[in-house]
Amino acid sequence: MNTKKSHSVGNSTGNSTGSELVRDYLAAVEREASALPADRRQELVADLAEHIEIALAERPGGSDREVLRELGDPRAIAATALQESGFGPGAVPGAGAVPGAGEAPGHRSPAWLVVLLPVLAFGLGYLWVPLGFALKVAGAVVLFRSRHWTKSQKWTGFGLTALAPSLMNVAWFLFSYPNDPSQAEYWTAIVAVAVVTVAGAGWLWRVRSDANAGQR
Questions:
Q1: Residue 108 phi/psi, 5° resolution?
Q2: What does pTM read for this prediction?
Q3: Mean pLDDT in each 10-residue stretch from start to end of the chain (216 residues)?
């Protein structure tokens, strides 16, 4: 994960002061949590940034200040993170939960939704192409934001559930459709795309793991 993510978070009206407020808050958390390993500290800050971004999106007209007040003092967040990661007084080694933004993982899409979206995109896309495209894009977004797969697994899953089926459809319309294919050829192409999509979704489901949360 990367602390750069926090730089994109501002208030819902785009006010630069609000953005600076959020950046100062995240910087304070990172400073107070300096005893954490770098990757763990970056994960904490990035999860907090995402939590703030989601909270603002869910509250039209809401302010950064309100969300930050709810999160609490940066020192308390850092102290909890240090304790739960085994680096502070009264530490509980291996606890590993992200403090302050403790609710943030709950806002992430569950693994079953990530797996379901490409299948829905395939089925509904034949009824209305724009809907299928929108679902495919949504599936890719939630996949790459998910904590259930490593980066390499995400790219493999994207290739199997979105890229390969799309390329197969493009090839069909470029090379087969203009030649007036038979019904048998038409259904064979549909089944082939379905098999690739479902196989990719099934693979994602099999390799999912909460243990990959830190390998983004």
A1: -75, 150
A2: 0.48
A3: 41 48 89 87 88 81 82 87 67 39 48 88 83 86 85 90 88 81 86 92 86 39
